[in-house]
């Protein structure tokens, strides 16, 4: 009798037994439903706010690369070349008008840039992966005021989950090469 192995029965509480019974009742169909719920969940959407030369664009790019989100830059003076190149490659109506504007050497209109941003924000890529929106609202007021741009952001189907507001960083090293007007509190251009 001493040579026979002794089997010890493990003790389980009632809650552990109920959890195990519930786990056994899960079928393959409910696993698929769980996967579909995860896939249909709203993706992460981030909005970066702040003054010029605070490093928000750099931070937004790094965040979008790390988390594989769509990067959208709303700066009217220099929107991301990706948005422009996509429309030029598609050769749609907006792409043709962009090509004419760029060939003539003129600056892009706020309306055209805002239209590109709107198309990108409502694209299937943003609906699937999420986005990082930088430099919107813009400070140009010829097409939409800042308040109208904020109302537009609020009415998006994919509203921002996180709003990152970067305070002014007044280091001379950071602002090196920029001409600023201290009386108007603006940066005039980059050198």
Number of strands: 6
Share in β-strands: 5-15%
Task: Report on the biggest sheet.
Answer: 4 strands, parallel
Q: In terms of structural class, how would the helical and strand content be classed?
A: alpha/beta
The figure for the number of domains is 1
Q: What radius of gyration results from the CA coordinates? A: 26 Å
The best one-word shape is elongated
Intertermini distance: 92 Å
CATH-defined fold name: Rossmann fold
Query: Strands of the largest sheet, in order across it?
Result: 2-3-1-4
Q: Can you identify the CATH class?
A: Alpha Beta
Please characterize this protein's 3D structure.
It holds the Pfam family ADK. The protein has 191 residues and is an alpha/beta fold. It has one domain: 3-Layer(aba) Sandwich (Rossmann fold), CATH 3.40.50.300. 44% of the residues lie in helices and 15% in strands. It has 8 helices and 6 strands; from the N terminus they run ααβαβααααβαβββ. The chain has helices spanning 14-24, 28-39, 56-67, 81-90, 93-104, 110-121, 124-129, 146-154, and strands at 45-50, 70-73, 131-134, 162-166, 178-181, 186-190. The strands form 2 sheets. It has a 4-stranded parallel sheet, with helices on both faces. Strands 5-6 form a two-stranded antiparallel sheet. β5 (178-181) and β6 (186-190) form a beta hairpin. α4 (81-90) packs across α5 (93-104). The chain is elongated. The model has no long low-confidence stretch (mean pLDDT 76).
